[in-house]
Design a protein that fits this description.
Maf protein; seven-stranded mixed beta sheet; alpha/beta; globular
């Protein structure tokens, strides 16, 4: 049975990442817009995994295809885990990331260097045509930068500094970023799960 994969996002940056990593599955990969659906999704989960499944199920209910959704965010230890699951809605959905990033830098400013730790977390849910669901998660550790840097990313990437690479997430080339990013890790794990499902079906 030939499946399509629909990604429950309207974010062009995310679509590029999903397509790049999943292309060798050999399945058609569509955004919600390309699939012709735009459900009104209320993300009222209490974890990244719950929110990812809520998004995927909303699109699956309209299409019946394999639907992947991710919920990801920045977890800053000095801010007690903020912005966390509210990363996209932090300070209001229409607030620019330049303002959000500057706010985080200012709030973390009093922290000693060893307490500037943070991580990007990504949970991915895949709802299968039969309604069953697969979950994977990925994380990448870093620290909050003292000032934004880089253009190879979106969201909080310019203020997320990776000491082992000596640069922010927004300064790392896209191909390399997919290998080390939280979404890249969660997606690679999901790709293995999907390959196994496809392999079983094709027996």
């Amino acid at each position: 049975m030939k499946h399509r994969i629909i990604i429950a996002t309207e974010n062009a940056g995310k679509m590029r990442e999903f397509r790049m990593i999943l292309e060798d599955l050999g399945l058609e990969i569509l955004s919600m817009k390309e699939a012709g659906v735009s459900p009104d999704i209320v993300e009222d989960g209490t974890t990244f995994a719950e929110n990812a499944e809520i998004k995927a199920r909303a699109v699956w209910a309209l299409t019946g295809d394999i639907v992947l959704a991710d919920d990801s965010g920045l977890v800053v230890d000095f801010l007690n885990g903020e912005p966390g699951i509210y990363s996209a809605r932090y300070m209001g959905e229409n607030t620019s990331y330049e303002i959000k990033n500057q706010n985080i830098i200012e709030r973390v400013a009093p922290a000693p260097e060893d307490r500037r730790t943070a991580r990007f977390v990504c949970a991915i849910a895949a709802v299968m045509p039969d309604g069953s669901v697969l979950h994977t998660e990925g994380a990448v550790e870093g620290v909050i930068a003292h000032e934004p840097a880089g253009n190879n990313g979106f969201g909080y990437d310019p203020i997320f500094y990776l000491p082992e690479y000596g640069m922010t997430s927004a300064e790392i080339p896209l191909e390399r970023k997919n290998e080390i990013s939280h979404r890249g890790k969660a997606l690679e794990a999901m790709k293995l799960c999907l390959k196994e499902v496809i392999r079983k079906e094709s027996r």
